[in-house]
Specification:
- By secondary structure, the protein is an alpha+beta fold.
- It folds into two domains: 2-266, Immunoglobulin-like (Sandwich), CATH 2.60.40; 276-359, no CATH class.
- Helices cover 25% and strands 26% of the residues.
- It has a 15-stranded mixed beta sheet that branches.
- A hairpin with a 2-residue loop joins β13 (249-254) and β14.
- The longest helix has 32 residues, at 328-359.
- It is globular and about 75 Å long.
Length: 361
């Protein structure tokens, strides 16, 4: 990452305050319930449903330092057993042929590749943490803060499909010199992604908890909340977890959404479908105007673009109105579409109008 250019200065600052526990500085604190794995996890990089169905799937990753959702979404899920913490990650990628995967030696500069980085603060002091990085070739990097001489005997596996790449990780608790977490334990945690497969190889930084462009900011990390085998979310334990996590507002993720806990208020449920409140006004005006244009001029240009846009819009409306828990990845991708819909509809409208105007001369 570009922040490593300031490594010496940052490391000096960290060493000066390493003995002091820091405060949670996040305005909105994220918390993820890590459930006990009901079946053994076989590390093959494939995220087999039978092994991972018990885990809560979380998406909605954002561009670091921005409220904008990442254009290529990431999905994370975690489980644990007596020996290991398990992490499974799906990285959606529309340009798989442009993945940057150059580092094939462990503890090399893996961050120059497409990769995922995750950070764990087992003491929950918002100051001391471990860093782990994995690329699509399952090349690994680990460090204790900025100390890259620290090593951990952990495992990673990777796989690829047409439009995504996947990572599975197992980290033994004994390697971290920490006991197996008991239900109720809270760790600091964040997961981030460095994407280089975009246009021109320009680096994009995605994160779960927003660390504002600097992955080494443990005061802004989210949290892992370890829960028992038969855990079911309730207002009482949600409020307890939020209090442990800290912050003015906490969001505890559950299947299909999260519970939002604000100081002095009862927890309230939020679903991924709440992302998809269908945008009205100017967006639908452009779509309606385009529809009228094509009715009056059936052979007008760019009809296939209009059909694709309206088809996707209808799919998003159906997803938003559907029953039952919504898939977080599908909802995040739909929200990315909605966020860009006004610009696309407006651009298409004026392109069609210009084409029609040119036909009159």
């Amino acid at each position: 990452m570009n922040t490593r250019a300031h490594l010496t200065l940052v490391l000096t600052c960290l060493m000066a305050c390493a003995a002091l526990a820091a405060e949670n500085e996040a305005v909105v604190t994220l918390a993820y319930p890590v459930k006990f794995a009901p079946t053994p996890i076989q590390l093959d990089g494939k995220l087999t449903p039978q092994e991972w169905d018990a885990a809560v799937r979380v998406s909605g990753f954002r561009l670091s330092g921005s409220e904008a959702l990442a254009p290529e979404q990431t999905v994370m899920q975690l489980l644990y057993d007596q020996q290991n913490l398990y992490l499974g990650v799906k990285c959606a990628e529309s340009q798989m042929d442009k993945l940057v995967v150059k580092c094939l030696m462990d503890d090399g500069d893996v961050w120059h590749d497409d990769c995922i980085e995750f950070f764990m603060d087992a003491t929950h002091d918002h100051a001391t943490y471990w860093q782990f990085i994995v690329n699509p070739a399952a090349t690994r990097y680990d460090a204790a803060g900025f100390d890259r001489t620290w090593n951990c005997n952990w495992k990673a596996a990777a796989s690829k499909e047409a439009n995504a790449w996947f990572i599975e990780v197992a980290i033994p608790f004994k390697e971290l010199k920490t006991p197996t977490p008991t239900p109720g334990a809270v760790w600091g945690f964040n997961l981030a992604r460095e994407r280089r497969a975009g246009i021109g190889g320009k680096l994009q930084l995605y994160n779960w908890a927003d660390v504002q462009g600097n992955f080494h900011r443990p005061t802004l990390y989210g949290h892992l909340w370890f829960v028992g085998r038969d855990w079911q979310p309730s207002e009482q334990d949600t409020a307890a977890a939020a209090k442990r996590a800290g912050g003015k507002e906490a969001r505890l993720y559950v299947p299909g959404g999260c519970w939002i806990v604000q100081e002095g208020q009862k927890p309230k449920a939020w679903t991924y479908r709440d992302l998809l409140a269908t945008q009205q006004g100017v967006v639908t005006r452009y779509l309606d105007d385009l529809s009228d244009l094509y009715k009056r001029h059936p052979r007008a240009a760019l009809r296939s673009d209009f059909d694709a846009l309206t088809k996707r819009y209808q799919e998003v409306k159906q997803l938003a109105a559907g029953p039952g828990p919504a898939d977080p990845e599908a909802c995040a991708a739909a929200k990315v579409f909605l966020d860009g819909l006004e610009g696309k509809a407006s651009d298409l409208y004026w392109r069609v109008r210009i084409e029609l105007l040119n036909e009159t001369f």
